[in-house]
């Protein structure tokens, strides 16, 4: 299996060198845990350092706002788009069926246009909220992941952890469909909180399962694989 470097400092050491090429990885976490920064770093580093162009599909924030916020880390997505190394797209989450159907048409065309190797969808929680926790939602989600696997890109999908519920995702089935799950969290340490990362699942990979701290620095996310956090 070919592995691709994630572009997230410290992560590759936890997952045998990187993501398996072509897999769909779920990035789950609550508000403020760094999900958008995580997937943006994956996309930007892939295009700027590893010659792997990428496409960012936002179902939440307008691309202009994401581009503006990512400039604080020195990630200029405008330049990448100008050079044909990235595309940032906003998709209307109310047209869910249309979005799923176009995965094999218009999205494929955009992938071929820049020879994209990386894909981000942020977030599938918005996608599922408009469908409700129904059989239809489960069917559409399965169809989405199936279509993504046919595109040939390594894909990251973000999802919100439901507040006050003892499950990782809205439907509770997203984690079974995805090839991997990375959980971002905020853990209380003394009188403050510390961001943490845990690799809960990674098919075909002997991965670390400890809770590791990470920081969001001026250059993006840095994970500390040699450090562990204890949850009491």
What sequence of helices (H) and strands (E) makes up the elements?
A: EEEHEHHEHHEHHEHEEEE
Structural class, by secondary structure, is alpha/beta
- Tally of alpha and pi helices: 8
Mean pLDDT: 87
Biggest sheet record: 9 strands, mixed
Question: Which strand order spans the largest sheet, edge to edge or round the barrel?
Answer: 5-4-6-7-3-8-9-10-11
Any idea what the CATH superfamily of the domain at 21-180 is called?
P-loop containing nucleotide triphosphate hydrolases
Overall radius of gyration: 17 Å
Any guess at the CATH architecture of the domain at 21-180? 3-Layer(aba) Sandwich
Looking at the structure, the CATH topology of the domain at 21-180 is: Rossmann fold
The backbone outline, from C-alpha atoms, is globular
* SS strand fraction: 25-35%
**N-C termini distance:** 38 Å
**Number of β-strand runs:** 11
**What is the CATH C-level name of the domain at 21-180?**
Alpha Beta
* Helix content estimate: 25-40%
Which residue ranges are poorly predicted, with pLDDT under 50 across at least 5 consecutive positions? Answer: none
